[in-house]
Amino acid sequence: MKSFPLLPLGTLAGLLLALGTGCATTDFVTGKSVNNAYTLDEDIQLGKGFHAETLAQLNKENQLINQDPVRLGMVRAITGRIAAVSDLPDLPYEITFVGDPKIINAYAFPGGNIMVFEGLWDSKEGLVQTLDELAAVIAHEIAHVTCRHATEEMTREMIPNLAIAGGMIWATLEEDKDLQLLFAGIAVVHNGLIVTRYSRKDELEADRIGMMYMAKAGYDPAAAPRVWDRLAAASDSQMGKALSIFSTHPRDFLRSQELRKHLPEAQALYEAAPVKHKGTRKLSELPPLVTPEK
Ligand SMILES: [Zn+2]
């Protein structure tokens, strides 16, 4: 049995660490110094790439993309209003609406591409019931974009990922099958656990910043803790769906408790908002989903 190659990996990690410290940048939302190896333009380019890949996959599955003018108009209007009052109003925000009632989700790619799925307001399994609640989810996603959580996370992952890649190259050069398998295994476990999720800290930040954005845009911020309470109380059948928001977001009541601490600040922003929208409108009153004849 071979011993674990601590020295080459340690040296490699040290080198990468030295390279990685040169990426301090100022956060657009908090004004604090953060590590992000990407520029805002790179956020946009990366997001476009991820979005195109996702669209190709959804097209392969014959999903209905941007087919329903009422729903597309609704999510586009909410996104536009919230983006306009956000810390980065000039990003190329774009909405994609996917008419799949089985997918309960909304997510954002870096740079401002936002995906919303019909299942989000499904009458039985969905997460949101009113326009205000939908605005809370979209505002949370926009906050992930303006806080640049995706590329911050990718920056944090860069060093371990490069170290794993380096380990694999080393194992290949050594022609050591056991080591190659070991590093391939580390790569799978590592990416599977981290890449699809934001950190808990990032989630709480997106919750708080998102609630301020929705309030400034004229949606009642009290809807935000209500949505995360519903997420915490999600049923097992909702949890079972791989692509769903329930599988990628922390499921406990801490989020709504944290949000309620900041609610007075958000309520003040809502009171001061120049326009208030009829956010109590029920999404169950939407006309039937438009599906083209096949
Ligand atoms: Zn999130």
Report on the structure:
By secondary structure, the chain is mainly alpha-helical. The protein has one domain. Helix content is 56%, strand content 6%. The strands form 2 sheets. The chain has a 3-stranded mixed beta sheet with strand order 3-5-4, sandwiched between helices. A hairpin with a 4-residue loop joins strand 4 and strand 5. The longest helix is centred in the middle third of the chain and has 25 residues, at 149-173. The N and C termini lie far apart (60 Å). 35% of the residues are buried. Residues 1-7 and 188-196 have low confidence and may be disordered. The chain binds zinc ion. The site of zinc ion (ZN) has 6 residues, from helix 4 and helix 7.
**Strand order, largest beta sheet:** 3-5-4
The overall pLDDT average reads 83
Oligomer: single chain
Q: What sequence of helices (H) and strands (E) makes up the elements?
A: HEEHHEEEHHHHHHHH
Q: Structural class, please?
A: mainly alpha
Measured between the Cα atoms of the first and last residue, the distance is 60 Å
Number of beta strands: 5
Our estimate of the beta-strand percent is 5-15%
Radius of gyration: 21 Å
Count of folded domains: 1
